């Protein structure tokens, strides 16, 4: 089992797509083990996107992610990091393949609806950054053997 961090970004919240997109992750077999709506402050935004500091889109990205509440979650399942990134599709919504979340709902480089951790190291760092220990649940979702089998 693997955990990954997802952030339903301000465009997703404004466009009332959180429920629909969360359903796609659940339908794929991922379980929600942490979930909350928060207003991100600049310090957390800069820490989360530290790898992009200095890039031309950085200031805009920080402004965007702090502009309205986000829903942040921890999803758990088999190969959860890769599964989420595959469902999300390419970063640029214009280029993202149809059938992916960004391909189906985004036409923007920045406003691409959902963040997903890109590696086990990123997932561990990001979950610790966004959630306190007691905010992430540990349990075995019923029927997991039917989701993963084989
Ligand atoms: P991700 O891992 O697919 O989310 O993409 P990156 O880590 O490369 O970039 C982080 C976020 O910055 C993306 O999800 C976009 O919201 C934004 N972003 C990335 N590249 C660009 C760009 O070229 N222009 C703008 N305006 N935003 C970008
Ligand atoms: Mg990234």
TrEMBL record:
Nucleoside diphosphate kinase-like domain residues: 1-138
Location of the protein in the cell: Cytoplasm
Principal EC category: transferase
Keywords: ATP-binding, Cytoplasm, Kinase, Magnesium, Metal-binding, Nucleotide metabolism, Nucleotide-binding, Phosphoprotein, Transferase
EC number: 2.7.4.6
Cofactor: Mg(2+)
InterPro entries attached to this UniProt entry: NDK-like_dom, NDK-like_dom_sf, Nucleoside_diP_kinase, Nucleoside_diP_kinase_AS
SUPFAM superfamilies for the chain: Nucleoside diphosphate kinase, NDK (SSF54919)
Signal peptide span: none
Protein name: Nucleoside diphosphate kinase
Species, as recorded: Aquisphaera giovannonii
Lineage: Bacteria, Pseudomonadati, Planctomycetota, Planctomycetia, Isosphaerales
Gene label: ndk
């Amino acid at each position: 089992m693997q955990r990954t961090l997802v952030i339903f970004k301000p465009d997703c919240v404004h466009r009332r797509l959180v429920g629909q997109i969360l359903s796609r992750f659940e339908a794929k077999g991922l379980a929600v083990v942490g979930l909350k709506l928060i207003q991100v402050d600049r310090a957390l935004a800069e820490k989360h996107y530290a790898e992009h500091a200095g890039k031309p889109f950085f200031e805009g990205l920080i402004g965007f992610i702090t502009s309205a509440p986000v829903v942040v979650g921890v999803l758990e399942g088999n190969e959860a990091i890769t599964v989420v990134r595959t469902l999300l599709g390419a970063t640029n919504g214009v280029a993202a393949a149809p059938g992916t979340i960004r391909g189906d709902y985004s036409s923007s480089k920045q406003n691409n609806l959902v963040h997903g951790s890109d590696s086990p190291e990123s997932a561990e760092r990001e979950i610790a950054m966004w959630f306190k220990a007691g905010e992430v649940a540990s349990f075995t979702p019923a029927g997991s053997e039917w989701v993963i089998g084989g």
